[in-house]
């Protein structure tokens, strides 16, 4: 990316978008347009150096206005959250296809130079993720297609649209499949939070308010890999800059159980808690991990932030928020 021309970040009022805008500003991009449907008061990070707009990008007219005179697009906008949200809001998640479709149409009309689309590891078939000791998912494992119902189908369909807008209309598109991104300035309560933030909140609440136990969704032996936000931003920018036209995994390849995740967070908090397991709660696939061979070979990217370091940063930020805002159980 050259530093001339407008950069559009959709979903920029969200967790990943806020960090991306901050990094673009830090590295010398001065003309940044940020669009999100949330009121400005609810943005995760509101950076006054950027042009900040509240608009509903499910509408084609809003996408056209957002893409006007834009050179690069990072399309991060979507209705999403952790398993507690996407398993119970499938229709809402699928309606994000309106954003994906209209943003591609508007970008083509505006002669955007390059568009980045944030997809998800939820595009991978559940049958490849039935064991905790899962084989890491390669990009080719997305087909034959049977992605996660709702959210995963929308992401996979939007990936295909990116491909065909590139092939049919010459719009240069790049796609990353995010694997469990976490870090400060993210959701940690309210139902949309993901496992790292949820575990940090639960351990902090127990420590602050004198509880001696923590609830874990599932049996705690399900496995995941977790990528710190800084690694996500670096990888996203590299993918946009690259010549890789097919989707690339962007995630950590370190597999841990949810119980191990809790072990790390308890260590940061300096507590040990009794664990109760809610087997009826949403828990997603049994195991999921990212095969990073392709992005390592093509772009030389690998995560730089360990899970322990990233979780400590996340824990400290959530702790400060909970102290400032009062009790969060």
CATH architecture of the largest domain: 3-Layer(aba) Sandwich
Q: What is the element string, with H for helices and E for strands?
A: EHEEHEHHHEHEEHEEEHEEHEHH
* Principal-axis shape: globular
The CATH homologous superfamily of the largest domain: NAD(P)-binding Rossmann-like Domain
Q: What portion of residues belong to β-strands?
A: 15-25%
User: Measured on Cα atoms, how large is the radius of gyration?
Assistant: 19 Å
Q: How many DSSP H or I helices?
A: 11
Beginning-to-end CA distance, first to last residue: 43 Å
What structural class do you assign from the helix and strand content?
alpha/beta
CATH level 1 class label of the largest domain: Alpha Beta
**Which segments are poorly predicted (pLDDT under 50) over 5 or more consecutive residues?**
none
Kindly give the count of domains.
2
- Give me the CATH fold name of the largest domain: Rossmann fold
Q: What is the strand arrangement across the widest sheet?
A: 3-2-1-4-5-6-11
Total number of β-strand segments? 13
Percent of residues in helices comes to: 25-40%
If you average the pLDDT, what whole number results? 95
Largest sheet composition: 7 strands, parallel
Give an account of the 3D structure.
- The protein contains 11 helices and 13 strands.
- By secondary structure, it is an alpha/beta fold.
- The protein folds into 2 domains: 199 residues, 3-Layer(aba) Sandwich (Rossmann fold), CATH 3.40.50.720; 98 residues, UDP-galactose 4-epimerase, domain 1 (Alpha-Beta Complex), CATH 3.90.25.
- α7 packs across α9 and α7 packs across α11.
- The longest helix has 19 residues.
- The relative contact order is 0.14.
């Amino acid at each position: 990316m050259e530093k001339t021309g407008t950069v559009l970040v959709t979903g920029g009022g969200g967790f990943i978008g806020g960090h991306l805008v901050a990094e673009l500003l830090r590295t010398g991009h001065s003309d940044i347009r940020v669009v999100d449907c949330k009121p400005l008061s609810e943005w995760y990070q509101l950076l006054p150096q950027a042009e900040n707009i509240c608009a509903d990008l499910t509408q084609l007219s809003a996408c056209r206005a957002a893409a006007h005179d834009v050179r690069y697009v990072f399309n991060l906008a979507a209705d999403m959250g952790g398993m507690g949200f996407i398993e119970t809001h499938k229709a809402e998640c699928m309606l994000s296809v309106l954003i994906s479709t209209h943003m591609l149409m508007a970008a083509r009309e505006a002669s955007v130079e390059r568009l980045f689309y944030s997809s998800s590891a939820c595009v991978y078939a559940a049958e490849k993720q039935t064991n905790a000791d899962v084989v890491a998912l390669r990009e080719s494992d997305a087909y034959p297609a049977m992605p996660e119902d709702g959210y995963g189908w929308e992401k996979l369909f939007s990936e295909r649209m990116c491909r065909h807008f590139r092939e049919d209309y010459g719009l240069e598109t790049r796609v990353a499949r995010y694997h469990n991104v976490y870090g400060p300035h993210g959701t940690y309560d309210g139902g949309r939070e993901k496992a790292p933030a949820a575990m940090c909140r639960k351990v902090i609440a127990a420590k602050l308010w004198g509880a001696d136990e923590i609830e874990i969704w599932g049996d705690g032996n399900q496995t995941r890999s977790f990528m710190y936000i800084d690694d996500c931003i670096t990888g996203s920018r590299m993918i946009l800059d690259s010549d890789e036209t097919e989707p690339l995994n962007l995630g950590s390849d370190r597999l841990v159980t949810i119980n191990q995740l809790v072990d790390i967070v308890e260590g940061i908090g300096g507590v040990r808690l009794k664990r109760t397991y809610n087997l009826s709660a949403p828990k997603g696939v049994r195991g999921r991990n990212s095969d990073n061979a392709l992005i390592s070979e093509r772009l030389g990217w690998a995560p730089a932030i360990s899970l322990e370091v990233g979780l400590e940063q996340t824990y400290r930020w959530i702790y400060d928020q909970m102290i400032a805002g009062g009790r969060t159980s």
